[in-house]
Amino acid sequence: MALSEIVGVNFVLSAFFFVRALSKALITYAQNADFPSHTKIKSRGLTEPLPKKLPTAVDIKKAIPKACFNPTVKESMYYVFQDFFLVTAAYALMKASEVFLPGWLHWPCVFLYWAVQGTLFTAIFVLGHDCGHQSFSHHGWFNDLAGNIIHSFILVPYTMWKLSHKHHHKFTNNFDKDEVFYPVKESEPCAGGKVLPGFGFGIGWFGYVLRGYAPRAVCHLNPMDPMFKGHRLACVITLLFNMVSIYLQYCHFSTFGGFTAWFKYYFIPLFIFASYMVIITFLHHNEMGITWYNDSEWDFVKGQLQTVDRHYGLVHKAIHHIGTHQMHHMFSKIPHYRLEMATSAFRKTFPDLVRICDEPILPAFMRMFAKYEKQNIIADTTKEFAYQ
Questions:
Q1: Rounded to two decimals, what is the model's pTM?
Q2: Torsion 182-185-188-190 (CA) sign
Q3: 309/189: higher pLDDT
Q4: Start and end of every Fatty acid desaturase domain (predicted)?
Q5: How far apart are the first and last CA of the chain?
Q6: CA 77, CA 42: separation in Å to the nearest integer?
Q7: What is the pLDDT of residue 47?
Q8: Residues 6+ apart with CB under 8 A from 67
Q9: What is the pLDDT of residues 356-374, one digit of tens each?
Q10: Which of 89, 85, 76 is nearest to 146 (CA)?
Q11: Residue by residue, what is the 3-state secondary structure of the chain?
Q12: Residues with Cβ within 8 Å of residue 56, at least 6 apart in sequence
């Protein structure tokens, strides 16, 4: 085996064991920490249940400025060019640093690159996410073309994800029908199964794409899955887009550095993006005071309002305000660049419906994962459930 191959294998193994050790350390901390009750967490609306009489979706929509529902190709494409430019610039700067900076700065630059590029990959996902919701433009064909191109860069199967995500929005916080991270009834065969610490962070996302979330698992790489009935051809086209993306990566990295370079410059940022996906998806639907309902108790407005807004600090704007989740769920056709405006209007008009948690993201994730491990199996007769 050549020296470069040995170095590459050692690098991959070292990165794997580092991530595993970090995950175990964080989960151990979460399990042993004396977390505050939800009354002590900096939050709004989490200590009181939703009012019994809720406005309709039409009532809420009337309070949102009409401009919020008007995406434009110009604005949406601006963010596409911006984010892909930043991804390219980050890669170019990292490569330049290896030539022009002293050796002792190499690994600090690498870790900074991973954090920045993983965040930018997440931003790119959000743009494709807009395409999937048809909030990228008023042209369905353009949304799907752009979505396939954008998501293939980060190896997300656009059409399959769009369809399963649509199902998630249709049945948000309905534990009988929702799509991921819902509490599981004790009679389900998968109840009580082991979960990787922190869902394995990025491993959880890759597992979700490949196998889905039991007991209602969906393989996002199988066009014949029942979830995708009526959309088989579109699913196959999406797979072709992803195959082209993989081929282009192969062409580039086989010329510039091989597998080690691919792993270092692309896969680690992809894993960080995948970790973002697990954390974001889990935290916006799971918090103390946020209720899950069975099918008989659930309705659309109630389910959408049982999502929680969170702020992502320094990267909140960079990942396109995905933390403004209540309005995104209530009206998924609002483009990301109008979500702050819509959220401000909603909070002003319906202050008693607002759900916000301002706890820092990683501590919140550790805290809620520890609760998920202990409480996510529920009795078959449960009608409403909230973590305590």
A1: 0.89
A2: positive
A3: 309
A4: 106-352
A5: 54
A6: 36
A7: 84
A8: 338, 341
A9: 999 999 999 999 999 999 9
A10: 76
A11: CCHHHHHHHHHHHHHHHHHHHHHHHHHHHHHHCCCCCCCCCCEECCCCCCCCCCCCHHHHHHCCCHHHHCCCHHHHHHHHHHHHHHHHHHHHHHHHHHHHCCHHHHHHHHHHHHHHHHHHHHHHHHHHHHHHCCCCCCCHHHHHHHHHHHHHHCCCCHHHHHHHHHHHHHCCCECCCCCCCCCEECCCCCCCCCCCHHHHCHHHHHHHHHCCCCCCCCCCCCCCCHHHCCCHHHHHHHHHHHHHHHHHHHHHHHHCCHHHHHHHHHHHHHHHHHHHHHHHHHHCCCCCCCCEECCCCCCHHHHHHCCCEECCHHHCCCCCCCCCHHHHHHCCCCCHHHHHHHHHHHHHHCHHHCCEECCCHHHHHHHHHHHHHHHCEECCCCCEECCC
A12: 301
- pLDDT-derived band at 29 (thresholds 50, 70, 90) equals very low
Tokens 């350390």 identify what position? 25
Provide the token pair at 10: 């050692």
CB atoms near residue 82 (< 10 Å): 13
Ramachandran assignment for 321, one of left (phi > 0), alpha (psi -120 to 50 degrees), beta (any other): left
Token pair of 303 as six digits: 């389910």
- What is the pLDDT, as a whole number, of residue 246? 98
CA distance 72 to 47: 39
